[in-house]
Amino acid sequence: MTYVVTESCIRCKYTDCVDVCPVDCFREGPNFLVIDPDECIDCAVCVPECPVNAIYAEDDVPGDQQQFIKINADLASSWTSITKSKGALPDADEWKDVKSKLAELVK
Amino acid sequence: MSSSIETDAVIIGAGPVGLFQVFELGLLEIKAHVIDALPIIGGQCMELYPDKPIYDIPALPVCTGKELTDNLLKQIEPFGAQFHLGQEVSMVAQRPDGRFDIHTSADQHFISKTVFIAAGVGAFQPRLVPLDGIDRFDGTQVFYRVKDPEQFLGKNMVICGGGDSALDWALYFADKVNQLTLIHRRDDFKAAPKSVSKMRELCDTGKINLKIGQLAGFEVHDDKLSELLITGIDGAKSSVPCDVILAFFGLSPKLGPIADWGLDIDRKQITVDTEKFQTSTPGIFAVGDINLYPGKKKLILSGFHEAALAAFAAAAYLSPEKTIQLQYTTTSTKLHKVLGVGNTE
């Protein structure tokens, strides 16, 4: 199993999750984070850190977010590791409650 | 360096599974020393969710992380385990005599016949100041815990964070340093309400300079940290004089040196068998969230089961000539004696 970052993170990228990961399995893109499924050890420590509740256990990913399982796996191999939190994207607070923003994802 | 401690068992990790390991070893009359990186007992239960309800502990319909820890501590009281807190195990290595050397970050040395790694997701360590290059002032101007408050008197101090540690020290140092700046990323403090209102009073009287925002950078003068740059939530930039930073950004777990102890590891977890929960090194067992085996589920209750079987395996390892009988705490007078209950004459 693994944990999966879903749509809520897009254009927000608060990065609070990154600090608590004991195995440094987060990968960073321009406006989204993903979890490398080959590194995640299912400890769930990151889940409550996310201010927009973007992180789910693979088995708990909501129906309309299922595609993010593959998006995490695919992007993890090309994006670089992020191990320390940094400020959220400048307009994160304007995007945090936007529901449908997959089209905004920059790969 | 303090003198070495010789023992039959060392448990690495004082979370629920480490505590129950004390119990299971205790029933078999094996005394244990417990080491944890946190200054408190309870591991994740205390550090991450002390007040959150847990619903899947057998026979406890609901309890909090703190209640679970308190109950376990009560349960293991008869066994007199010794705790060594606030220190991380840096090295475990087998000695020529078959026993294990265990060294901690507090320079404590153990020689133990068996080792139980109940380290969960790793050792909790302070989250670092998120500014590149500032780590070269660690221990001279940047601190993550206060050992000697005297050394900070009269300085320009910056305290970062919004929890109890940050506010307790801010209140303590407010009239003892030259200038005290408290920086927190939002104007919302997790600390005890009483501390927060006291802090606000001290801000009104000018004893504390409160800045809401993010750390943006630092200035160095004569090879010393001299100023911190801050970006306010409104985007405004400012700077404050800074001789010393006390950073309390909370703790995060890191697996750390466990990978270097020569044990078989799979995806950063320690592989064990499911008969003894023994690692690839006989005499070293791994229980709880840190281990991996087919079908592993990271549940506290699984860790309890693993601790029981690991204890029996360790008893056989320690005394191969003895047959270890399974006895029940309901009926065994021997166990009653060990537990200090009932008619023990």
From TrEMBL, chain A:
InterPro entries linked to this entry: 4Fe4S_Fe-S-bd (IPR017896), 4Fe4S_Fe_S_CS (IPR017900), 7Fe_ferredoxin (IPR000813), Fd_C (IPR022569), FdxA (IPR054829), RnfB_subfamily (IPR050294)
GO molecular function annotations of the record: 3 iron, 4 sulfur cluster binding; 4 iron, 4 sulfur cluster binding; electron transfer activity; metal ion binding
Classification via PROSITE patterns: 4FE4S_FER_1 (PS00198), 4FE4S_FER_2 (PS51379)
Highest rank taxon of the organism: Bacteria
Cofactor(s) needed: [4Fe-4S] cluster; [3Fe-4S] cluster
Domain spans labelled 4Fe-4S ferredoxin-type: 1-30, 31-60
UniProt keyword terms in alphabetical order: 3Fe-4S, 4Fe-4S, Electron transport, Iron, Iron-sulfur, Metal-binding, Repeat, Transport
Entries under PANTHER family matching the protein: FERREDOXIN (PTHR42859:SF2), OXIDOREDUCTASE (PTHR42859)
Function: Ferredoxins are iron-sulfur proteins that transfer electrons in a wide variety of metabolic reactions.
Stated name of the protein: Ferredoxin
Species in which this protein is naturally found: Polynucleobacter paneuropaeus
High-level lineage: Bacteria, Pseudomonadati, Pseudomonadota, Betaproteobacteria, Burkholderiales
